[in-house]
């Protein structure tokens, strides 16, 4: 099975965005924001990258912030789905935590350009949109904390600081988007496997 | 002892930058780059923040890239010094690794605005400057890898993938700059202590 086929239905990124012109603009916005930053990008730049006129852009998106919000919302929805799916699965806490880390790392590696925009441009969202995204992040955090807490309760895990360890686990996975290089020596799945092992060590009983 | 006093001689950030006007411009550049991104910031913005004219800025810095390079160089020199100092200390590998993580985390927490610029704007450096910074990062990586390798050799640590684990340890610490909030519930030292414990678990013998 190819890496692309293992990405939980992400074979066609942004497939939820229709019509095709709106999707093309979104992809152009992700690339422009990742390359130059949100504030240095104009709607004219984005339209140009998509081979469209500024007027055509305004049919689909009223403002640059609307594009960022759409990107951030889709990215955070995907992240939350991956983590809640892993948390809700059958299996031991260790199996579920390993699955959550593997899926979360794989997303941040394969979609590192999108993930950088999603993770680094939160401040550029409007207050209302930022509040909505923060709520999704809170739920992602809760999904991982739930797995770790259950592992502590059953005695599988030994974790003195559950909120701090949850934060560290998510942070470790998120930072993959910063350093991951598709031309590098490790595939997204290899990084996911390594990280799942490291995270299980972080929460495991001490020798 | 206050947190500021515990920062390994960083009581006066940018004290290596003289004269005072050059330092003021550098501080203004860090703030502007962190807030709006490198590409969205003009030298005029930076001069304005420092209460100076664009002409006065050019006396000290020929280009915006020169400011970014100076910030990046000072930040990377500091990071390397912290890690090599920890690696060169007496003590067990566990003690030295814990010290390295504590110091590296503390820097990324206390100086999170600077650290974000240092970590996220590498692509904006000129090729020559980027090569110089990449070499400093290679040395930082080598300092941590050395501690982990020594711990493996003495049997203190059990680490199947030393380069991958080194990468993960540094990545975990670096991402503190993204999420750390000075108004949050954890101090830089508390995060450092938590992370040192988590990293020792990552490299420790399995039960």
Observed structural traits:
disordered N terminus; homodimer; 10 helices; mainly alpha; Tetracycline Repressor, domain 2; 207 residues
In words, what does this structure look like?
- Two copies of one chain form a homodimer.
- With 207 residues, the first copy, chain A, is mostly helical.
- Chain A has a single domain, classed as Orthogonal Bundle (Tetracycline Repressor, domain 2), CATH 1.10.357.10.
- Helices cover 70% and strands 0% of the residues of chain A.
- Chain A contains ten helices and no strands.
- Chain A has helices at 20-36, 43-49, 54-60, 64-88, 93-110, 112-120, 127-154, 162-174, 176-179, 188-203.
- The longest helix of chain A has 28 residues, at 127-154.
- Chain A is elongated and about 65 Å long.
- The A-B interface holds A 35-40, 119-120, 123, 160-161, 164-165, 167-168, 171-172, 174-176, 178-179, 186, 191, 194-195, 197-198, 201-207 and B 35-40, 119-120, 123, 160-161, 164-165, 167-168, 171-172, 174-176, 178-179, 186, 191, 194-195, 197-198, 201-207.
Question: Gist?
Answer:
Two copies of one chain form a homodimer. Chain A is mostly helical and 207 residues long.
- The CATH C-level name of chain A is Mainly Alpha
Question: Based on DSSP secondary structure assignment, what is the total number of beta strands of chain A?
Answer: 0
Name the poorly predicted regions of chain A.
1-10
Which structural class should the secondary elements of chain A be placed in? mainly alpha
Intertermini distance of chain A: 37 Å
* Portion of residues within helices of chain A: 55-70%
């Amino acid at each position: 099975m190819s890496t692309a086929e293992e990405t939980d239905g992400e074979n066609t990124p942004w497939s939820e965005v229709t019509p095709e012109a709106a999707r093309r603009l979104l992809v152009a916005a992700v690339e422009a924001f990742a390359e130059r930053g949100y504030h240095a990008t104009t709607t004219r730049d984005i339209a140009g990258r998509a081979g469209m006129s500024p007027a055509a852009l305004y049919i689909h998106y009223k403002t640059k912030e609307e594009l960022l919000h759409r990107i951030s919302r889709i990215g955070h929805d995907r992240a939350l789905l991956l983590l809640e799916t892993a948390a809700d699965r059958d299996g031991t806490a260790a199996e579920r935590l390993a699955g959550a880390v593997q899926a979360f790392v794989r997303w941040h590696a394969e979609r590192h350009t999108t993930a950088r925009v999603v993770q680094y441009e939160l401040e550029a969202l409007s207050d209302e949109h930022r509040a909505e995204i923060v709520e999704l992040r809170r739920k992602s955090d809760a999904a991982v904390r739930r797995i770790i807490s259950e592992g502590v309760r059953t005695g599988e895990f030994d974790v003195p600081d559950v909120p701090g360890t949850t934060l560290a686990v998510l942070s470790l996975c998120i930072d993959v988007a910063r350093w991951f290089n598709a031309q590098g020596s490790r595939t997204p799945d290899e990084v996911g496997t390594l990280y799942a092992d490291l995270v299980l060590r972080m929460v495991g009983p001490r020798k």
